Amino acid sequence: TLVTTTEMLQDAYQNNYAIGAFGAHNLEVIKAIIAGAEKEGVPVILQTTASTYKYVEMSYMIALAKAAAEQAKVPVALHLDHGESFKVVMECLRAGYTSVMIDGSHLPFEENIQLVKKVVEAANAINIPVEAELGTIGGVEDDLQVDEQNAFFTDPELAERFVKETGIQSFAPAFGTAHGKYKQEPKLQFELLEEIHRVTNLPLVMHGASGVSEASVRKSLQYGIAKVNFSTELKDLFAEQLRAFFLENPNENDPRKYFLPAREALIELVQQKIVMLQK
Ligand code: 13P
Ligand code: ZN
Ligand code: NA
To answer: pTM score, two decimals?
Structure first.
């Protein structure tokens, strides 16, 4: 069965490592994520935005994630990434997601708090943990687009209030990462992260980890980062592999053949990311 992210994140947080959370877009990708986690023997988070579960269809999404969790030799959670409304969160809770993010980061501070509080009350009532974001993480994530110029770092004082008043289980700060690719290696604000870590005392989440160097990811583990989100690098690799396959084999029509190299490559990438997150 799918587990919640509560215990895995607490353990990671207490012991200075992180859980990988990977964008789960379809069957092949889900199987690759699970296989990678199994090879490394660590818990893993399958995560989807609302647009992904709409694409896959909710009943399929849940069935796939449950089947994965049933067979996997490691704990598996299904997490809603960047939930944009109370309604979207409710849909996921009802369907069987075991962890949710509510993203009110575009709202004024007090409105963000009110929305997150409401979500925490509903989700925690059935023991589902909640992640929330304050500040703005730049870049593009599905329907969400934030100009990097308009990305604001999280204010630690506000973070402290936000965490206290909302009662969330994990916190996503803006400290220099962005969704999607980077024009150059981002300069992460580690002093800021350290301060946020000190005042929030909660597992922290790194968004936008595609394109962040191994050194920076590893350094962040010292400052409370306990969940690391990867999406773009997986999508890029999967697409690259398919393109390469069809260039070599323009007449192949069997999905059981053309998906295979992409899936194999993805397993290795997931393993590589997971290894990066260990102590
Ligand atoms: P990347 O696409 O940069 O890996 O970001 C993923 C993410 O933060 C999902 O919420
Ligand atoms: Zn994100
Ligand atoms: Na990124």
So the answer is: 0.96
